[in-house]
Amino acid sequence: MARIVSIVERLSLIVLRLAPASFREAWQREIVGTLTDACQEARATRGLRGLIATGAAELSNVGVMAMAARFGKRGAITGARRTTATSPAGLQPIGPDDRPEHDRSRASRFGGPNRLAHDLRLAFRSLSAAKLPVAIAIITLSLGIGVNSAVFSIIDSTMLRPLPFANADRLDEIWNLDPVQEFSYPGFARPLFLEWRKQTDLFDRVEAYDITSFVLDTQDGAEMVTGAYVTPGLLSTLNVAPVVGRLFQEGDGRGGSETRVIISQEFWSEKLGRDPNVLDRRLSFNGRAYDIVGVMPSSFRFPNDRAGFWVPYDAEAPPPGQVQPRLVAFVRRAPAAALALVTAEVERRGVEISKAAGGSAKVSARLRSSGFGRLDIQMERSLWVLGGAVSFLLLIVCANLANLSLSRVLARSRDFAVRSALGASRRDLVREALVEHFVIGLTGAVLGLLIAAGMLTFTLSMLPEGALLSSMNAIDLDARALAFTAVIGVITAVLFGLPPALVASRPSVGDVLKNDARGSTGSPASRRLRSTLVVAEVTLAIVLLVGAALMVRSFIKLQSVDRGFDSNGLLALRVGLPAAGYLDPYARDRFTDRMLEQLRRLPGVIGATAGYVPPDSSMISFGKIEVEHRPGERTAELVLPVYQVWSDYFDVVGIPLRSGRVFGPDEPRESVIVSESFARQHWPAGAAVGGRFRIDNGAWRTIVGVAGEVRQMDLDDANGSFEFYYPLRRPAGLPAAAPTGQISAIVDYRTLAVRTDGSDLVADRLRRAVHEVDPKVVVWRVDSVEQNFADAVARPRLVLLLMTVFAVMGLILAAAGIYGVLSYGVTQRRREIGIRLALGARPQAIGRLILGNGLALTSVGLGLGVVLSLGLVRVMRTLLYEVEPTDPVSVAAVSLVLFGVAGLAAWRPSRQAMRVDPVTLLREQ
Amino acid sequence: MTTSKDPRAFLPLTPLAFQVLLALADGDRHGYAIMREVEERTDGVIKLRTGTLYTLLQRLLDEELIEGAGPGGVQGAAPPNHQARGRSGAPGSPPVQKDDSRRRYYRLTKLGRDVVAAEARRLELALDEARRKQVLGRTTKA
Q: I need a surface site. Which of A40, A382, A544, B126 has the fewest CB within 10 A?
């Protein structure tokens, strides 16, 4: 047996060869000795078997140790929290400082995805431990993100996103340009359009469209539908595939092939019931049969989202007698032509081309790039203002997040310190904090999306018929909006939640573990930071509030403006008189008489007359006015509405007549009734009646009456409401007007103004009344004038509503911020308060102290906010109606509201402070 | 070079390290004695092998939790009985202390004492929690 022991001994020497020489020198003899002892013991207690078993075990154990020594691995004496299993010879990656880099990745069972799962688990645990602050953080974050997403989505769809067509970056329109007035407008006559087609060096495609309306005969009667004429190449330039059938091609739109139509998917659903045999169907447009050759997808919204059909118009060879559209040139720049070059060339060549086409030499052309400028300027400005408002709101949310994070820091720093003592590295702690905030951010983003969707739906429903916010792109939450939301959510949460957590993870372990309530983050620096954040919040909230207040005042002023007539119960019935039967203007007048007679007989109708009712007008007149008693002098270019009216118009509509008379039955065509301000301006002495004037070189007109002002509800009412009224009825004795030029289906649109006693029944009856007089006459619309005015202010009303919502949200968040910082301050200063109370201070004084703190913060924020809003709100000037951005009433109102809210927010902390019991407090120490 | 290390930095100790330090708590021992004590104290649950032991001893020395206490039984427990090896004596002869390099003794340093105490306290805390939560059954504190 002794032999066996010595064999084991010799084997151990061999095994130890595996170890480096230095190691052997230091340890060999001892190790061999111990090993041998063990074997001897085993032999003594368990005999041969024991010896062999022990010998084998010991030898292999020593072998592993020798190998480890060779590879420089050291023994583990500290179990990092992750180490549980022991490998042979107790070798493990060890404590935080000693862990070699590469071991991190294979850190036992926590590599890669497992680590993420582990971190997520920890994150959820940590977040659930502080449910209230975390819930508040998520809710405020989702609100801030939601509104930002919605506004971004709208701005993106209408202004930023490229057109959903092929080569969208090369697509433009060419408009006419009045170089003197810098005023551009669309619409070319055919020869001009053809001239532009010759500019092949600039454009490789020159197409055109014109929005039009056709009378569609259905079994329910005639109705008007909106669509567009398009040149046959236009649809293929846009390169959107039809869902059924084909696009137009060369040859469509010529004589014999012009009665073809492509319809929209909505049209197909609503009017044809999605008939699968749609291509076999024919539609009766303006009395002619059109063949359906294709159906466009619902995402195709050209040139606006109301277009329901497209008919071809071949500009080179239009069918004879076809009504000529006013062609809006839609072009594609040649690939080699740079935008700047083309823009310059278009303006340069504009006049020549106009002359070559036989047009005016005073008109040039301008290239209108798609992109900005698609919306009217007011809408664009409103969107930018809203964008600014929601950004401010988001900043307030960020400040709140930072504050919330700071207030959790105290608890966390203790937690961090303990974990640090147990071996967590700073990197681990930071990583875990990062994951936590990531979770908050992602949750906020998801909820924010829901809020955004809701807000979009609401916004779009508040705008009438998409008229103001029409876009070729669908306005919805697309991939870009989703990405924007997610990114903003995560960045905000991480950016504002992380730094406080980082601060807390700094390794001053000992200090934190030693003191409790004093806390390592009670430093003056952190208090200052929190105060600064709150002041910033209040400042931003003030700006929002001032903006909203200004808009409220502006809107109230707008609404309370005296319109100049009585719109109560007034309905506007718009009809279209078809060519068949109404070519003769006298026939139209006869119809009007019969129609009015019929309408007056209806129950509930108090009066009826003919003539457009504001805010609609019969036409717009531009030109310079020359007044007879000041010959040769002309005013500046004026743009004003003209109304063609019946004789009893003023009476029924309720526009007061200041002097003169209304039109008579045989009123000469050049009679005119003008509005007060026009009369006052040119006949200050008051003798306008009888005076004469003309517009540019038109016929001289004689003033027969002066009427009261009518407000156009236009925020740009700079001209002080000039209106002209012309007689609608054609005086007897004139020769029957020969039809000139092309004949369209509808020769004349007229509005019949009907004053009712307000009952709804009348509106329905009106349509029938028209068809009773003449079924061929098309009823275009029946609107209440009140509703029309409401639509006219729909945009400012919506912007106002949104601004108010944002401002209120901002205020609540700022108040929450004030509450948070004061309440935290009270907790921190408990000792100080306790001492003061113990020394005899009255609780009320303490309460006032806290309240004073709160009000101080608020005041600073208010001051900064007012200054800031003065600057920014200048931007809003164009959106405000007769209210100056520095309106003191608004500022005063806002200040009052703010102090009230701040007082409320400070109330509870100050009561908390008053209730501090110095005895228990000092005992705790 | 003496750096005052924080004993808490070593927490938690691995079970083996704790056992080794514990074995040295009441006196100096040499390697084999440590192995034996741990085995006996834990009723064979923890069986230290030579390689494992010396890896630990090396590390503990590096970290200055233990120090060499010189050859021979300076203080404390006598080495366990064993039979002398063939060369040095006849079988059955009384136990003979072999020479230095085979019997290096070890003892705890002040740091080592602090560390094992800290660990013990840590375990005590854990045990208290467990007791409070009645994980160990409804027994009162022993």
A: B126
C-alpha A294/C-alpha A296 separation (Å) is 7
Cβ neighbourhood burial of B61 (10 Å; 0-12, 13-18, 19+): middle
Give one word for A311, left, alpha or beta, with left for phi > 0 and alpha for psi -120 to 50.
Answer: beta
Handedness of CA A472, A473, A474, A476 (dihedral sign): negative
Measure the CA–CA gap between A609 and A903, rounded to whole angstroms: 59
Mean pLDDT to the nearest integer, B18-44? 92
pLDDT score recorded for residue B21? 94
Across chain B, how many H-helices and E-strands are there? 4, 3
CB A88 within 8 A of CB A61: yes
pLDDT of residue A744: 61
- β-bridge pairing A778-784 and A570-578: antiparallel
Instruction: Assign residue A739 a region (left: φ > 0; alpha: ψ between -120 and 50; beta: otherwise).
Output: beta
Both tokens assigned to A98 = 């000693």
Q: What is the pLDDT of residues A460-506, one digit of tens each?
A: 877 765 555 566 677 777 888 888 888 888 888 888 877 776 766 66
Q: Which of A393, A485, A501 is nearest to A437 (CA)?
A: A501
Residues of chain B with C-beta less than 8 angstroms from the C-beta of A425: none
Q: Tokens standing for B140?
A: 């009162």
Alpha-carbon span A171 to A235, nearest angstrom: 13
ipTM above 0.90, yes or no: no
Residue A707 in contact with residue A663, Cβ under 8 Å? no
Q: Retrieve residue A683's tokens.
A: 């006949």
- Which of residues 26 through 55 in chain B touch A, CB cutoff 8 A? 30-32, 35-36, 49-55
Question: Using an 8 Å Cβ cutoff, are A360 and A354 in contact?
Answer: yes
Interface of A with B in 393-452 (CB under 8 A): 421-423
CB-CB contact of A371 with A172 (8 Å) = no
Taking only Cα atoms into account, the Rg of chain A, rounded to an integer number of angstroms, comes to 41
Q: What angle do CA A192, A198, A202 make, to 5 degrees?
A: 110
How many helices (H) does chain A have, and how many strands (E)?
A: 24, 23
* Interface test with chain A among B54, B121, B123, by most A beta carbons within 10 Å: B54
How far apart, in whole angstroms, are the C-alpha atoms of residue A451 and residue A447? 6
In order of A117, A133, A492, the CA distances from A122 in angstroms are: 9, 17, 21
Nearest residue to B64 (alpha-carbon basis) of B112, B96, B131:
B112
Handedness of CA B8, B12, B16, B18 (dihedral sign): positive
A61 vs B50: CB contact, 8 Å cut-off? yes
In this structure, how many other beta carbons lie within 10 angstroms of the beta carbon of residue A337? 16
Q: Which of A252-256, A780-784, B25-29 has the highest mean pLDDT?
A: B25-29
Neighbours of A889 (CB within 10 A): 11
**Which residues have C-beta within 8 Å of that of residue A78, sequence separation ≥ 6?**
A94, A95, A423, B9, B10, B11, B12, B13, B14, B17
Answer positive or negative: Cα dihedral of A64, A67, A69, A71. Answer: negative
Whole-angstrom Cα distance, residue A700 to residue A693? 5
Whether residues B82 and A40 touch (CB distance < 8 A) is answered with: yes
Whole-model pTM? 0.63
Terminal Cα distance for chain B, rounded: 43
DSSP A792-824: HTHHHHHHHHHHHHHHHHHHHHHHHHHHHHHHH
Within the 333-362 window of chain A, which residues sit less than 8 Å (CB to CB) from chain B?
none
Residue A715 has what DSSP assignment?
T
Which among A407, A385, A493 is positioned nearest to A447, based on CA atoms?
A: A493
